[in-house]
Amino acid sequence: LDLRAEDIETLEELGAGNGGTVCKVVHQPTKTIMAKKTIYPQSLLDSPALINQIIVKTPVDQPSILTPQSSGEPGGSSRPSRSVSTNLVNKASPQKSLTPGSHTDVEPTKYTETPSSTFVRVHHQTMKQKVDPKLLVRRQIMREMQYMHDCDSRHIVSFYGAFMNDGDISMCMEYMDVGSLDRIYKKHGPVRQDVLRKIAFAVLDGLIYLYDCHRIIHRDVKPSNILVNSMGQIKICDFGVSGPLIDSIADTFVGTSYYMSPERILGSPYSVKSDVWSFGMTLLELAIGRFPLASEDGQSLAVFELLQRIVNEPMPTLSTDKHYTPELKEFISMCLLKDMELRPTPADLMQHHYLMVQEKVDLQQWAKDMM
Ligand code: ATP
Ligand code: MG
């Protein structure tokens, strides 16, 4: 779909997260109902530290021209410098076209060159044509988002396209009319266990698909990123689009998440096993109907305390004295193994006996009850 801002009419706001807002919209030319997520990269891009890290990643032979103009932000230049070029994946697939007019003054960068030269080239363009580097970053993000078109799984929310409007980036995805699992459990209490098993299967299957077919690590598994529709389908959304730039932003800048694994907190790069941790935390939360890492009196913890608890203290487990099965308890505990080496991969988990139970569950009826 060739999406343009002027063709999209907003119907209602569905929610807002850390980096943006999600609205229910209609794409007028096709009358398609979609969910539009608008992210505001402005604040991110205004950070000299980010410019430092990302756009102006220095191939060693080009240091001076690639130095950012400003680095007024305290600490901005003292961040450990991760080399973007080591992150780059050479994606030689043809570039798909974006919204007409979205890159009129600069040729699209082709990923057929060596990784670092891609960045060098962006910089040459910046220098030559005095194009705002922030604009180039936005465009690069848009390009990388195009890869989401290739994701096609029944457990992944479909992607319609992305466009840029006044510096904001909007992406349109399948609208899931029952909403996200955090809303569901906050309204209706802990998720039924037969349904929970179906959710576990759907999320794992989605994660395996992303990784096996596209080498994408989700990076943000949590209840608000698992969506349900009235047909009873369960799909994951908001996965880390994989591209050199977005990878780099994510590894460097994506802030603290309550679902972060110990190794992530300690600074290692993402891996599929970090997704497994977040997945375990998510299942536990859905099973008990509250975020598992609260203080004794149920208050949410300060970020630092939370992080130190994840790294240093034993993780909560399900008590089997309630109606939880030992299989579920074991399944979650395996996801929450602090040692990444010992923690299973999504594919390993698929073989776990918790998921081997064949049971008919009327998910459509459940979804209707949750609406
Ligand atoms: P965070 O910003 O920390 O990731 P979040 O996932 O809640 O939190 P958003 O991704 O911006 O933030 O989503 C906001 C809300 O919009 C979600 O909680 C969800 O309820 C709703 N939402 C998101 N995508 C869709 C969709 N495709 N269909 C229906 N509702 C959606
Ligand atoms: Mg989300």
From TrEMBL:
ATP binds at residue 37. Residues 62-114 are annotated as: Disordered. Belongs to the protein kinase superfamily. STE Ser/Thr protein kinase family. MAP kinase kinase subfamily. It comes from Mortierella isabellina. GO terms for biological process: pheromone response MAPK cascade. It comes from the Eukaryota. Residues 8-355 form the Protein kinase domain. Residues 86-102 have a biased composition (Polar residues). Residues 70-85 have a biased composition (Low complexity). Keywords: ATP-binding, Kinase, Nucleotide-binding, Phosphoprotein, Serine/threonine-protein kinase, Transferase. This is Protein kinase domain-containing protein. GO terms for molecular function: ATP binding; MAP kinase kinase activity; protein serine/threonine kinase activity. The chain holds residues 69 to 439 of 439 of the full protein.
